[in-house]
Design brief:
- The structure is a single chain.
- By secondary structure, this protein is of the alpha/beta class.
- It starts with 8 loop residues before the first strand and ends with a strand.
- The protein has two domains: 132 residues, Rossmann fold, CATH 3.40.50; 137 residues, Rossmann fold (3-Layer(aba) Sandwich).
- A ten-stranded mixed beta sheet has the order 3-2-1-4-5-10-9-6-7-8, with helices on both faces.
- Helices cover 43% and strands 19% of the residues.
- It comes from Mycolicibacterium hodleri.
- Belongs to the universal stress protein A family.
- InterPro entries: Rossmann-like_a/b/a_fold, Universal_stress_UspA, UspA.
- Pfam families: Usp.
Length: 294
């Protein structure tokens, strides 16, 4: 996978169960890729002191710092337990101060991947982490993995990688990531492209068959270079008509990881702010890796 590895894989934690699932997934990914894992907890900054000065402000600050240490210690234990049968891991734990999204975006400049949980353990956490995940997939400078609350690491290891194939504007990075993940895990790759043709019912059988032939040829050509680079990866190419987000989420039920780009043309012709990627990240039954077009 292209990108700097000074920070290796960065995972943001907040003490929630989803954060723990993200740590476990990120730790296994770090061992597979032989890169370090950086576990990061972000404390909100207190740029504006209370006035009049609150007499217990230092007590609360110390409490937050103690909680941050406990969160990182617990995350470190999760990481070590998750990879005890996979191999050694190099990891570090850091507490930073600032805005969570901006801090993680900054770290993404020198990271292979940034990993976060999809939701927290309360309504407030769900809103907060949802905004962090959303901000990251919009602004991060590297791949972003959003991990559901349950740890899917034990999910059937033979399940394939699911790739949402976009048009050329999305870039090659999502395809490269998906092939790399399939090769590292020793599984097949399902490459799915969806034509969101709302009036497909108007086509007769012959015209629909012609469109399918054109689409299949274009999909094969789109993947040809990467198939030659990864001859060990068996590819199942699929071309469907329908609603892209729904079909990707549905297909994720038989995968162990979903990979997609941020925007492009064709069935996935939504910018990351749009409904397709947002819905897939929110509802997929697997961790989702999103790579912004560059």
């Amino acid at each position: 996978m292209a990108g700097s590895t000074r920070h290796g894989i960065v995972v943001g934690v907040d003490g929630s169960e989803t954060g723990a699932a993200a740590v476990a997934w990120a730790a296994r990914e770090a061992v597979r890729r032989d890169v370090p894992l950086s576990i990061v907890h972000v404390l909100p900054s207190r740029a504006t002191p209370a006035w009049p000065e609150f007499p217990f402000s230092n007590v609360f600050a110390a409490r937050d710092e103690d909680r941050a240490r406990m969160i990182l210690q617990a995350a470190e234990r999760v990481a070590e337990l998750s990879v005890e049968n996979l191999g050694p891991i190099t990891l570090s734990c850091t507490t930073l101060t600032g805005h969570a999204t901006a801090t993680l975006v900054g770290l993404s400049e020198d990271a292979t991947m940034v990993v976060v949980g999809r939701s927290g353990d309360s309504a407030l956490h769900r809103r907060f982490l949802g905004s962090v995940a959303s901000g990251l997939v919009h602004r991060a400078r590297c791949a972003v993995a959003v991990v559901p609350g349950d740890d899917l690491g034990a999910r059937a290891h033979e399940f394939p990688i699911l790739l949402g194939v976009d048009g050329p504007p999305a870039g090659e990075f999502p395809i490269a990531i998906a092939f790399d993940e399939a090769s590292l895990r020793g599984v097949d790759l399902v490459a799915l492209h969806v034509w969101a043709l709302t009036e497909v019912h108007r086509f007769d059988a012959a015209e629909r068959q012609r469109l399918i032939g054109v689409g299949e040829a274009a999909l094969a050509a789109r993947l040809a270079h990467w198939q030659s680079c990864y001859p060990d990866v068996r590819v199942d190419r699929r071309l469907l008509f329908g609603e892209p987000a729904h079909l990707l989420v549905e297909a994720s039920g038989s995968a162990q990881l979903t990979v997609m780009g941020s925007h492009g043309s064709g069935g996935f012709a939504e910018k990351l702010l749009g409904s397709v990627s947002s819905e897939v990240v929110r509802a997929a039954r697997t961790p989702v890796i999103v790579m912004r077009a560059k």
